[in-house]
Design goal:
Strand order of the largest sheet: 1-2-3-5-4
Strand content: 5-15%
Number of strands: 13
Distance between the termini: 27 Å
Order of helices and strands: HEEEHEEHHHHEEEEHHHHHHEEHHEHE
Number of helices: 15
Helix content: 40-55%
Structural class: alpha/beta
Radius of gyration: 26 Å
Length: 475
């Protein structure tokens, strides 16, 4: 986070709460370009947010104020700066539905505890969509006021260009375009005078004090009821068992009937269509973030999406012919290439790198956001001596210097102990990424040697995939 942005967020916080900040924590990056931080003071705590997209911020703030006034479980917005690029909101904690699902499932499978949480969410969803959704200022929606034909074509083309083409799936462009038009025409026949959350999935649902709360609905607009239900039940990495999806669909319809009369067969027919377009939209995002932006953790969702797609191909209730589209989707679902890409790196990958502090901290391409950075600058520097200036930490002369004339051995003993503990735990828990960085002044001698030794130590002691790089030396 840029220093000026940080200072602006702190100023907003201190002005609103009339207390001096005592703690500031930058929160892990999400799939968006928004930045979040947690701020603390003597008697308050809140989340600071920055987003350069003013229209998106205005949509979020407008929706939040409306839902909060309607008694919906959303974070209260406390303060917004005059440029509308930064705001302070209520802190709903760190436990998302996805986190709860993952931890509980690891211990006891897809237990009744998880089912009951999903049912709490589904009790609130119709209220959000129908009663609380009345009175929404849809002029604030961004980028579209409704999930209309244009919105659908954006999603379908997103899938075509960022997933199909990058995954090298062959298709007849004109035939597929014709099917897209037929498909959107059918979907537009569903009732659509409701609030559509747009990204109603497990990472955007918070759990606190045995209650649910909702975040990240800034993409909301007017649309059909089926879309958000599809987003939740077919959330790829949540991997809800199909029998439970069917049970939760019926539970939602029971709750929905408290608000309106429902033709269940008609609802379910459109539901299949909206599940399909939601899966394609999500796969477009996996392609853009994974294939295009090289953020490999997005690729891990692909096998789950392929399983959902395979089920839908065999069990959909879409009453229009979409010959080319379903032929393409079948190729996607049966692609060995896509399944292997999604499974790459299932064992723990440890990325070890050296770098220069003068040129900034290294990036973590896994998107994990964690790991270690070790500062080697307190170690005796061979770079101070003319005979070593043109050499690196991989040259025998520098290696001898660091092993015989510096504190490197003692330093690495402690480093190895820390990293070993994490590798052991990460391997046991099935984590797939850990980063270990070594920095020094120029990224040439001490950090290079330390990274080389770390990589050698890991290869000799653990069954892990080690990726070694020297940022200032690799061209």
């Amino acid at each position: 986070m840029d220093l000026k942005i940080k200072e602006e967020i702190i100023r907003l916080y201190e002005k609103y709460f009339e207390e001096e900040m005592t703690g500031f924590e930058l929160l892990p990056a999400s799939g968006s370009y928004r930045e979040y931080c947690r701020i603390k003071s003597a008697s308050h705590q809140a989340i600071g947010a920055h987003n350069a997209d003013v229209k998106e911020n205005q949509a979020f703030i407008s929706f939040t104020n409306h839902f909060f006034a309607e008694g919906m479980p959303v974070p209260k917005v406390f303060a917004v700066n005059s440029e509308k690029t930064c705001y302070i909101q209520e802190d709903l904690g760190d436990l998302t539905l996805f986190d709860y699902l993952s931890k509980t499932r690891e211990r006891e499978g897809f237990s009744n505890k998880i089912v009951q949480v999903y049912k709490r969410v589904l009790r609130d969803l119709p209220k959000l969509q129908i009663s609380a959704g009345q009175g929404i200022d849809y002029e604030r929606c961004y980028p579209r006021a409704a999930f209309d034909k244009q919105s659908m074509m954006w999603d379908l083309n997103y899938f075509k260009y960022y997933f199909l083409k990058l995954a090298k799936i062959p298709f007849d462009e004109q035939a597929l375009e014709d099917d897209f038009k037929t498909f959107t025409k059918y979907l537009l026949q569903a009732e659509s005078d409701y609030f559509l959350y747009r990204d109603f999935q497990s990472r955007n649902i918070m759990l606190r004090d045995n209650k649910v709360a909702f975040i990240d609905y800034q993409g909301g607009r007017k649309g059909p009821l089926q879309y958000d239900l599809a987003s939740l039940l077919y959330d790829a990495k949540a991997d809800i068992p199909q029998a439970l999806r069917n049970e939760l669909l019926e539970f939602y319809l029971d709750e929905l009937e408290k608000y309106k009369t429902v033709d269940r067969d008609r609802f379910k027919a459109f539901f299949s269509g909206y599940v399909l377009i939601r899966i394609m939209q999500a796969m477009g995002a996996y392609g853009f973030r994974g294939f295009y932006e090289k953020k490999e953790h997005f690729l891990k969702s692909i096998p789950f999406a392929l399983d959902n797609l395979a089920y839908l191909i065999d069990n959909h209730t879409i009453p229009v012919e979409l010959k080319e589209l379903f032929a393409v989707l079948k190729s996607v679902a049966e692609s060995d290439y896509l399944r292997e890409i999604g499974k790459q790196g299932e064992e723990l990958t440890v990325r070890v790198c050296s770098f220069s502090y003068k040129k900034g901290l290294p990036n973590d391409p896994s998107g994990n956001g964690g790991g270690y950075l070790f500062d080697c600058r307190a170690i005796h520097n061979p770079g101070r001596y003319d005979e070593y200036k043109q050499l690196t930490g991989k040259d025998p002369e520098v290696i001898a210097f660091l092993e015989e004339r510096s504190e490197m051995a003692e330093f690495l003993k402690h480093v190895f102990a820390l990293v070993d503990q994490s590798v052991t735990t990460y391997t046991r828990r099935g984590f797939t990424n850990l980063s270990v960085g070594f920095g020094c002044t120029g990224g040439q001698h001490r950090s290079v040697y330390a990274a080389e030794q770390m990589a050698k130590h890991l290869k000799n002691n653990f069954k892990v995939n080690v990726v070694l790089s020297h940022r200032e030396q690799d061209f």
